[in-house]
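Quick one:
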Amino acid sequence: MASIRSLMTTQIVTAHPLETVADVARRMSSRNIGSVLVLDDGRLMGIFSERDLLMRVVGWGRDPERTRIGDVATPSPVAVDVNAPLHDVLQLFRTKRYRHLPVLDDGRPIGIVSTRDLLDALVDGFERFVDETRFKREMAEGADPYDHLGGSYGL
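Output:
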């Protein structure tokens, strides 16, 4: 059974609870990411996402230059174990409507997985399935599935 280890992003971006929202948002923007893990001494304290920025900072009229991430991040976020089956993680995304989940190994954050990561993997897998199915069909029909590449075979 496949686990989340194969899909998670391991180059996580983190923030300390005392950092300002503005600093963290700039870091998120420059790295084109939608969330950061909030860590204190290596322990997962929260997760801060674009949605938190919208709902808890902008929506409440808070000053991003003075608001601390630790005050507006989602505290004690649901996280998944690195060996969690993909099916279980998909169920969490679907039933709880999460967009990002921290990935833990022995309680330590080692990655993050997003709905986009899972969608990318599903699309890649589906494209491979379609290509393999087409190849098998063409072989069964006696066609050369590589003929579209051009060239001749000894002519």
